[in-house]
Amino acid sequence: MHINIRTHFIGSINSKILPALLFVFMFSQLKAQVVNEPLYKDVYDFLGRLSNKGVIEFDNLILPLSRIAIVTKLNEAKCKYGLLTNLEREELAFFLSDYNLERSDNYNRTIFSQDEFSRFRFFSYSDTLLKINAEPIAGARIFSRENQFNIHRWNGLRFSGYLDSFLGFSFSFRDNGESGNTIDIDKSFTPQTGIIINNKTQNSIEYSEINVNLGISWKWGEFSLGKDFIEWGYGKSGKIVLSSKAPSFPYLRLDLKPAGWISFNYIHAKLSSDVIDSIKTYSADLYERRTTREKYFVSHTVSLIPAQGLTISLGESMIYSDRFEPVYLIPVIFFKAADHYLSKYDITQGDNGQFFLNISSKNHLKNTHVWFTVFIDEISFEKIFDASRRKNQTGFTFGMEIVDLPFENLTLNVEYSRINPFVYSNFIQTQTYENHSYLMGHWIGSNADIVYASANYRFLRGLQATLWGHFIRKGSKGTVEQQYSLPQPEFLFGLKKYYNGFGLNLKYEILHDLFVETRYSHLRNKIEETDNNFVINYFDNFSFSLYYGL
Questions:
Q1: Measured between alpha carbons, how far is 417 from 419 in angstroms, rounded to an integer?
Q2: Which of 105, 268, 407, 528 is most enclosed, with most CB atoms within 10 A?
Q3: Average pLDDT over residues 414-432
Q4: Distances (CA, A) of 115 to 123, 124, 202
Q5: In a domain, 9, yes or no
């Protein structure tokens, strides 16, 4: 028996089909609107901790979620008030006060003052047709490493709201500038989101970020069009399926929940390949006009809840390129079969696919969330016991998070992720698991593993400390010839790299969205050279940040 699995998460937007989709959904029996809550909001962790203890049911496998979905869960937690700790009650009241547009139908206009829920607003307006909140984004961070200093400043604007009873909208723009002698320009081997630089000098860089979303919903589903981050899976150190490592991308997203025990998610996105299309390149008066090859990502996920607290999710994705394929707009089609139809089983014409599975258990062990995620890029079971014929281009994460044990307000986390050689890669340059040349999965990349542990303690509402540590092993990237030849290279083949580190983060949310944060980390890097000797470097990093609206 021989099974080869290589499928892709891919999505695409077509100017002729999109208006038809919007027409169908806009005239459905709409009940509410969709405004997605940004991923950095601490309310996700709050609801996650409550679900770990079995206080509420909270599906946070695929993020972001809408503000209406979140306030529904906060109200559910309010109904379980007696099961909350004193600190959780304070946190619940604090988070609820942030959702003025979702909780009130009163006419209201607030300018640089408190709204009806005592939440400070720069600008808030609400009537029978339009609801909107607007606020600035501003911040600065001083970073120090080995007596070298960098300064990161950012500013921008965010607003979100609802139009009538059917459309939700959000907009966020942030302009960034970094200056100093030790700027990480590439931001490659780090969990920090990748950037697209628009201006660079010897000691400074500038770049911007924009995220937008339009969404509608009905009783059992949501549909949104936007450009934003989408995360799939669990993990504090990184997520192997979809993470926020790569820059955000434009997408169509469909979420359905026809019954309490089943849900469905579909994503179709436009990616950036960074591969120049030489055929479409031509000379202009002063410059050469260059165009990159088209690249798309599509995925769908079915989640089943066979018992309270237990969720089993199975997903498939496809990366395809060079042309838009309408067949991938069918949310329920088997992408691998569609690829066979398009390519006639010719690997040189086909697309790059993946499968993934997540099993999540909450509160079956007291106050504990246990999860296991496997990501299959390519696997072959032919002569499974014959290592010379076996392929295993897969990755997995196993993790556990314990809340309020052995005492209240403490959250313990431990996880292990392993990503085998050649995961996320492909012999077709436009079909790698990347956007703008940054991985869409775990930031450590292929042929690597990581052990991560953390302890988070919340002293009072808004004030928390996180002590963390990690150990990373990473081998060589390898070549295309090695990827497609047998036998496959062993795990961690090539020159080795070892990264040890620990750190302490302190963060305080003084008011809604106003943060002060300090971070310290000690890192030890051990890099093998071609003569098999190791170069060892130590780094002590310190940063201090003050920001509003992130």
A1: 7
A2: 268
A3: 96
A4: 9, 8, 46
A5: no
